[in-house]
Amino acid sequence: MNMNTKKQFSNWSALSVLLIAIAWSGQLDAATVASVQSGDWENTATWDCGCVPGPGDNITVSTSTTVKVNTTRFTGNVTINGTLDTNDQFFEFEGNTFANNGAIISSTGSFGEIDFAGVGGVASTTQTISGTGSYSGGVSFPVEIHVNNSATLAPASGTILNNVRDLFVSNGATLSLPNVLVFQNGTVTSSGGSTISGAAGLQTKSTTTLALSGATTALIEMVNGTTTCAGNFGPITIDSGATLFQNGQVNANGNVTINGSLDMNDQFFEFEGNTFANNGAIISSTGSFGEIDFIGVGGITNTGQNISGTGSYSGGVSFPVEIHVNNSATLTPASSTVLNNVRDLFISNGATLSLPNVLVFQNGTVTSSGGSTISGAAGLQTKSTTTLALS
């Protein structure tokens, strides 16, 4: 190493040490501050420190107090027991844990935005959200939560996000679900490059919208109300009394269980999981028909998928529902499976309907095209008004 190289290395080392020292200094100097009365964030009388909290400080908005921000604020850990009025501003959260046990509103403007951008603003770090407090609601403009900067947001056990206009996961960020997150009365949006993952999953309630363009591997469970959906999903469960309403194509790369209602709304439902179980109702309330496509596990050709249940397909005030098996996939019905009111069970493009168990088919058409196969020891039983068009 020559002298110039040594000098350059020494300068960079010194700069790195200086930056680390500054970062640690900010952490060490962080204050813990609580509100003692309602007022503006910038008013020293609002806080027990008699100061204006700065970046990195740990903040508690105390019970029965309302604190209003009037400009962009950067913080460390935050606990809301009273009311935080975001007042059409950005609230940049750079701590470890954000706990809302009170209310977050935006009393003026278009909306307030809470940004999770990583601990200390550092990319690819993990932050936690907790609490059952409300977001917006009442005399308030909307509040949004944005997760970006490749940060990971993980909810604590028992967390409920209620009335968040948009939980927006973007720019390489991850919504990690080791605990169940209950989300109701708002929208969850994921953009390309983002991820929703975790063993526990997301539960939707009341009126919720899911617009998932990123990668989703976590279970999405519709517990009650109507969840409007489009995009990329892992496993899906629709509980009794709940409805999934499609406003675009759904790609389900996981098992699907329907105990409530799936309204396909004239859309495609691309099933790429192992087992599709319908014990509820599948309809298409508008358009020409809804189409469920079995295209192999993970969309891979020559793989086997299962169908089960005795739920209905279409019927009532509904346009038809069809099931298409293609991409050289093999569809196998579980024992006691009944397909009722499927307008067309269409086996094509080298696909196979395999019948080791009896499949009961009624009130519809079974079509097989050239290159497809219907085989198996148990066979197909037809009932009521049925058509077979087997090429």
- Category by helix and strand content: mainly beta
* Backbone shape: elongated
Low-confidence stretches: 1-27
Number of helices: 1
Percent helix, as a range, is under 10%
The separation of the N and C termini measures 77 Å
The overall pLDDT, averaged over residues, is 93
Largest beta-sheet details: 28 strands, parallel
Strand elements, count: 42
Name the beta content range: over 45%
Radius of gyration: 27 Å
What does this protein structure show overall?
The protein has 391 residues and is mainly beta. It contains one helix and 42 strands. The strands form three sheets. It has a 28-stranded parallel beta sheet that branches.
